[in-house]
Write a structure and sequence with these properties.
The complex is a heterodimer of chains A (110) and B (115). With 110 residues, chain A is an all-beta fold. Helix content of chain A is 0%, strand content 57%. Chain A contains no helices and 11 strands. In chain A, the strands form 2 sheets. In chain A, strands 2, 4, 5, 9, 10 and 11 form a 6-stranded mixed beta sheet that branches. A 5-stranded antiparallel beta sheet of chain A has the order 1-3-8-7-6, with no helix packed on it. In chain A, a hairpin with a 2-residue loop joins strand 9 and strand 10. Chain A is globular and about 40 Å long. The N and C termini of chain A lie far apart (38 Å). With 115 residues, chain B is mainly beta. The radius of gyration of chain B is 13 Å and the shape is globular. The chains are: A mainly beta (110), B mainly beta (115). The interface between A and B is medium-sized, with 25 and 26 residues.
Amino acid sequence: QQQVKQSPQSLIVQKGGISIINCAYENTAFDYFPWYQQFPGKGPALLIAIRPDVSEKKEGRFTISFNKSAKQFSLHIMDSQPGDSATYFCAATNFNKFYFGSGTKLNVKP
Amino acid sequence: DAGIIQSPKHEVTEMGQTVTLRCEPIFGHNFLFWYRDTFVQGLELLSYFRSRSIIDNAGMPTERFSAERPDGSFSTLKIQPAEQGDSAVYVCASRDRWTGKETQYFGPGTRLLVL
C-alpha cells in the first residue's frame, strides 16, 4: 500500500515554462513533506520542504503548495530550465520514517 | 567532505546466491537508513539504525534480508538467497543526530540485478 501517490510519472516542459508535480497522502500523522531532486548516478538531494501548518513555501524558482484539507501538495518549478531535468520525488514523514512517491521524470526542452 | 559511499555500484548475480551490499555513511552520522527503489513504488524504507542498533526493520520484505551495523559506522545489507524479484536499486541514507529529521543525505545506490 503506497503511502504517497505522485503524478505524473513523466513530464516534458519547454524552457521557461512551469513544471507542476503533484502528490497526495492519506496518513494525517505525517508532519513534514520534502521534495528531492535526483540526477542520474546520484542519490536524491533535498530540494525544498514544507510543514503542514504552512500553505506555501517558495525558494527561488521552486514553490511547494500544500493543501492540508485535501491531503495534497505540489511542486511548482517556475521558468523551468534544461538543468532542471531530473527525477523528482515527493515524500512524507513522521518520526524517522520517510515514505516516498514513485518519482516524476522531468525533461525540460531547450 | 565525502558523501555516502555505497559498494558495489552494480551487482549482477544469480538466483540462490548471497548478495552483500555495503554502505559507509557520512562520518559522524548516527542514523543510517536502507531503502529499496523498485521504480514502481519509489523509495521504500527497509530498515534504519541509530548507532549500532536497529530501530525499525519492518520494511524488510522477507527473512532473506538482513542488515547489520556492527560498530555504528558502516552497514551491510545481505540478501540470502537472492531471488529475481530482488532486482532493484538499494539506496543508503544517513543523518546526524543533531540535525532535523528532514536532513537525510542519500548515497548513489547499488543497482542489483538477479538473473
